[in-house]
Amino acid sequence: FVDSPLSLSSASLRRKMVRFGTVESRQYDTVVDDNPACENGPSVGLGWDYCDETDEEAAAETSSPISVHMYERNRPPRSRRRGTKMLQLTPETRFEMLKEAGIPAEEVEAAIKSANTIKQRRKETSAMMFAAPAHETLEKWVHRLKRTVHLKQSDSKQISKLWDKAQLQHAQHSVAAAKDRVQKTQRRSHAAVTA
């Protein structure tokens, strides 16, 4: 593909510009979330719905559109902005926010339980990752053994049964090791929290 001189000159003449219009803030509904990154208590999220200008109470907390330049001029300097630690909410604050948003306690507890289940599954998956390379190596050796020896059909069935049994034992061992690691991690994190 070769550009013609005409297209190159017209492309170089065009200036690429980005323009920003206005900044508008909205107040969205507070919802309970099951984010597993939240260590203690419920996690808080933003709903899809937001308050429009017809709601007088919400309109007082929602800003009218202003230009980007005005927004940047009125924005506090970086040195005076809140850091990420200051933006983190305590579990008590999140519980209170959800209560004020009218979210039932049962829904909050269900979200906490869901987040804990997700955390547990992630730990188990992480613990099982070490076994994958060994499993692949074992499969390769069995395949090579079958190919090298040219096993008969009856021998192949017996090898298949032995292979299934070995896989089951390997999986049981891996699950036991993973549970042990998860329990050790939980004990360490519990000890760190209580310390």
From TrEMBL:
UniProt-annotated stretches for the region Disordered: 174-195
Biased composition (Basic residues): 184-195
Protein name (record): Uncharacterized protein
Taxonomic lineage of the native organism: Eukaryota, Sar, Stramenopiles, Ochrophyta, Bacillariophyta
